[in-house]
Amino acid sequence: MKNDIRWDKAMYTTDTYNVEGLNGHAYAENGISVETSSPLSDEPGTNPEQLLGMSLCTCLVGTMAVILKEHHINEKAKAHAKISYVKGKGRYEFLVHAQVCVPGQTLPQTRALVSEVENRCCVSQLLSGSDNYSIEAVLDWE
To answer: Which one is the CATH code of 48-138: 1.10.287.3510, 3.90.226.10, 3.40.50.2020, 3.30.300.20?
Structure first.
């Protein structure tokens, strides 16, 4: 992977770290630092499920803003992600379900836009090969 020349042509790169484990801190170089904890404890902190969900929602809304501009639609999309930590096929897994809403659009129009965003959002692309990931168009949160 290090020999991949795309690393040399990246538009943006960040370095993130966690050297303390689940109950500690994670941080981005020259960026945020968050206290981390297990989702199964009462300890304060952000867990991996929350970070993944926020990353997915942010990418979906940001990518959708570009798509809406291309379609000359003057609305702002909203995204919701539900992340569950489950015991899967002999290991622990995440289940990820995203919902995207575009106010002022019909459900068929929103589905067409979500189809575009699903293929262009980098985080969605990263998750899309998994049977544990789904995304849907909605008129509002269900």
So the answer is: 3.30.300.20
Q: Report the distance separating Cα 5 and Cα 121, nearest Å.
A: 22
pTM value is 0.91
Is-contact 63 126, C-beta < 8 A? no
CA angle 124-127-128, nearest 5°?
80
Q: What is the pLDDT of residues 91-134, one digit of tens each?
A: 999 999 999 999 999 999 999 999 999 999 999 999 998 999 99
CA distance linking residue 25 with residue 23, whole number of Å: 7
CB 24 within 8 A of CB 36: yes
**What's the pLDDT band for 3 if we cut at 50, 70, 90?**
confident
Tokens of 54: 């926020």
* Radius of gyration for the alpha carbons in the chain, expressed in angstroms and rounded: 17
Query: How many C-beta atoms lie closer than 10 Å to residue 13's C-beta?
Result: 7
